[in-house]
Design brief:
The chain is of the alpha+beta class. It has 2 domains: about 1-50; about 50-143, no CATH class. Helices cover about 35% and strands about 35% of the residues. The strands form 2 sheets. A two-stranded antiparallel ribbon has the order 1-2. A two-stranded antiparallel sheet has the order 3-4.
């Protein structure tokens, strides 16, 4: 009978020791969570002073044209449309310069880049629009 009592007392002592050892672990976990939060704040602070994510695309040629319509009263009006053409050949070259910025104990990588974008447009296939040439507004085209 005394053996069962010893086993119970040992179990209680082990439980108390585990509980006492859990307390510092809890404090360490809180410190880790706080540091993670501070790191996210540092990243957000530094990133706010730099540009967000950016997408680089090539040149796009917009050619406006108009199509005739007839309204209910039989009067002719024009509807304006835009046709978009992408470059047939596009070369993008870049050089990226990484930099490290610090906030307290945290380092955040930011980047600068030099870009060179060149595009080549072959003859514009405006015939595919099925629009007469006089309805294309060439002087209002944009790149």
């Amino acid at each position: 009978m005394w053996d069962k009592g010893k086993l119970f007392i040992k179990a209680i002592i082990i439980f108390i020791m585990a509980l006492l050892l859990w307390v510092p672990t809890y404090f360490i976990m809180n410190i880790v969570k706080e540091r993670e939060g501070r790191q996210k704040e540092a990243i957000a602070d530094i990133s706010s002073k730099w540009a967000e994510k950016q997408v680089i695309t090539g040149p796009l040629l917009m050619i406006p044209y108009r199509t005739p319509i007839t309204d209910e009263k039989g009067q002719q009006a024009w509807i304006r449309h835009n046709a978009y053409f992408m470059a047939d050949k596009l070369d993008i070259s870049s050089v990226v310069f990484p930099e490290k910025r610090k906030r307290g104990i945290y380092e955040v990588a930011v980047y600068k880049t030099d870009l060179r974008i060149t595009g080549l447009f072959n003859a514009v296939q405006w015939q595919k629009l099925n629009v007469p040439a006089e309805n294309i507004l060439w002087n209002e085209s944009l790149l």
